[in-house]
Amino acid sequence: MRTGHRQILVVEDDQETAGQLADSLTLNGYQVNLAASGSDALALGLSTDYAVITMDRMLPDTDGIAVMQNLRERGVGTPVLIISALGEIDDRVRGLRAGGDDYLTKPFSFLELLARVEALARRSDTVIKETVLRVGDLELDLMSRTAKRRGRHVSLLPREFQLLEYLVRNEGRVVSRAMLLQRVWDLHFDPTTNIIDVYVGRVRRKVDDSQAYPLIHTVRGVGYCLRVPS
Amino acid sequence: MAIGLFGAFVFALFGYVYWSTASYVRSRLDSVISAEWKSLQKIYDASGREGLAKSIQARISDEHSQDSLYLLTTPSYAFIVGNLKVWPPSLVGSDGWQNFQVQEWRPGASGPPMLRATVGRLSNGDHLLVGKDINDLDLFARNIKTALGWGVALIFVLAVAAAVSVTRRTVGRIESINATSRAIMQGGPDKRIPIRGTGDEWDRVAENLNSMLDRIEILMREVRQVSDNVAHDLRTPLSRLRGRLEKAYHRARDSHEDQTLIGDAIANLDSVLSIFSSITRIAQIEAKAQKIGFRAVNITETLNDVVELYDAAAEERGMHLSFIGNERIFVTCDRDLIFDAVANLVDNAIKYGHEGGHVVVEVAESADGVAFITVADDGPGIPAAEHQNVFKRFYRLEPSRHAAGNGLGLSLVAAVANLHGTRIEVVDNRPGLKVRLLFPPKLTMAA
């Protein structure tokens, strides 16, 4: 089971959405606090040490990004997931990732939200410094950028290696298609086609074909998860 | 105001013409008189009073000089010879140029005529007067004045007539434009301003307004077409969604079946949402404040990424996707948008190409330093007549009307190209289609 504290602050002014978010996060083992305005969010964010804060961008009293900046100025380093309404991805939102934060556009699936929250929560408690990553019989050499399975070389293109590295670093966690597009290709739009699936399909063939067990698993409706089958 | 200015100008001009003509004639007259006086003085110097008297006598009797005055007197103004009988009393004791009137000169005339003369003393003290009757000059001046007066009057009449006709014509044309505008406001944009065919400025104004109306009509038709298409494209997934939910509602609960139905319903909803996000994304790109998020991008690298991303998809369709582009080419652009635009072109090329076909993505710089991106396939292509239509929102060629995709991909390409000032060329690849994006020179940078 995951380590670290599991307390989350959900900042959302729409009651129904806030309730749905709280339910699905609670179901996944988080303790959830709710704030319906920027000032409540600021007060709670300053008084409690959260693992992650999800912040709606359009709050009744202020912009979610302003609340986030306010928290940062007062020394709160909790990762923030900004949730913005469809079609308002501007450069401020795009810039969030540079600061270790993330964003999601409405409407989103709860599985996508969970994947993002998991990734942010993990980042706040672990930093991997190894030069070789291992999962089961898969070995990634981060210096030479090569992959081996059961000691045998797996031939990957540079982007394919990056994709595999990202999956390995998030071992056991769900990674969504949009997250892959953002982390591997640095692209900030949703492809309307199934292009990521096709791409991951090929990486999977290279990594998993004729092996003892598969490592890359499809998670229906969201994306992928790399793990050793139990 | 304009008329007053014009009048003052005409008056000034005519006044100047009159003044310069009159003074020219006068100075000519003066020089004639002065020359005559000098020649008489010479005669006097050569042959004395006797000779001078003879010469004067001769001139008086010459019928060509009937308007000339001559008078020679002794130092005490006693008459010697001349056609004036008496030294005019007003001129006694004076020398030089004189204007005066003498009743006895030309007795028939009404009132004493105006005379001009020069008066001087000869070396023995005799007085010599030489002059001219300047009544004719006055008459001449009056004639000029009258002629000029008529001229002014005529010019004013013509000016007023021209002003009235131009104003009436202008007002008439403005009124016809107004009438058309009113008709358009009340009816529809199908009315046009009449053109008289005179090729003047008013015709040009009317032509420009008419072509503006043509453009507005086309845009309105397109907007109507787009909303029809939005309605059509949204109705299909929405009615399926409704059908599925209704089915789920009425049937007996069965968790496995329910899950499938709900999963399909979510997929329908996602396709509706994806149409919305495509529309808002295109609108956002079109409304984008210029050049925000633009930076120097190595597009060779970006396109290589696109090709690599789509390579697997091409392979799946049994197609060959290749990339030509060796040197680093830097362009000032928004990387995400260029990636998205080229990805759409490649996606189309793969989607509509045939099995075993080839898709070639090329990036290069022309000799004059213009970067361009080409995406070419050897599929069925598009009829030349449709080349420009494919960039319209929701436009889909009839055969692909029911294929996957929402008909917005190429609109996005067009919006991205427009933001970058990039020209799109669509040409027949014989066989297939070749789409080329040409960056303006100012965005291309030396590597």
Key terms:
heterodimer, A: 230 residues, alpha/beta, five-stranded parallel beta sheet, four-stranded antiparallel beta sheet, 8 helices, 38% helix, elongated, B: 447 residues, alpha+beta, Beta-Lactamase, Helix Hairpins, Heat Shock Protein 90, 3 domains, five-stranded antiparallel beta sheet, five-stranded mixed beta sheet, 7 helices, 13 strands, 16% strand, rod-shaped
Radius of gyration of chain A: 19 Å
Helix content of chain B: 40-55%
CATH architecture of the largest domain in chain B: 2-Layer Sandwich
Average pLDDT taken over every residue of chain B? 84
The CATH topology label of the largest domain in chain B is Heat Shock Protein 90
Number of separate strands of chain A: 12
Report strand order across the widest sheet of chain A: 2-1-3-4-5
Q: Figure out the total of helices of chain A.
A: 8
Low-confidence regions of chain A: none
Kindly report the average pLDDT value of chain A. Answer: 86
Q: In the CATH hierarchy, what is the superfamily of the largest domain in chain B?
A: Histidine kinase-like ATPase, C-terminal domain
Estimate what percentage of residues of chain A fall within beta strands. 15-25%
Report on the biggest sheet of chain A: 5 strands, parallel
What strand line-up does the widest sheet of chain B have?
Answer: 2-1-5-4-3
CATH C-level class of the largest domain in chain B: Alpha Beta
Share of β-strand residues of chain B: 15-25%
Secondary-structure map:
The complex is a heterodimer of chains A (230) and B (447).
Chain A: E1 7-11, H1 15-27, E2 31-35, H2 38-47, E3 52-56, H3 64-73, E4 80-84, H4 91-94, E5 102-105, H5 110-125, E6 132-135, E7 138-141, E8 146-149, E9 152-154, H6 158-169, E10 174-176, H7 177-185, H8 195-208, E11 216-219, E12 223-226
Parallel strand pairs in A: 1-2, 1-3, 3-4, 4-5
Antiparallel strand pairs in A: 6-7, 7-8, 8-9, 10-12, 11-12
Helix pairs in contact in A: 2-3, 6-7
Chain B: H1 2-61, E1 68-73, E2 79-82, E3 96-101, E4 114-121, E5 127-133, H2 135-186, H3 201-250, H4 255-287, E6 295-298, H5 299-316, E7 320-324, E8 330-333, H6 335-352, E9 358-365, E10 371-377, H7 409-420, E11 423-428, E12 433-438, E13 444-445
Helix pairs in contact in B: 1-2, 3-4, 4-7, 5-6, 6-7
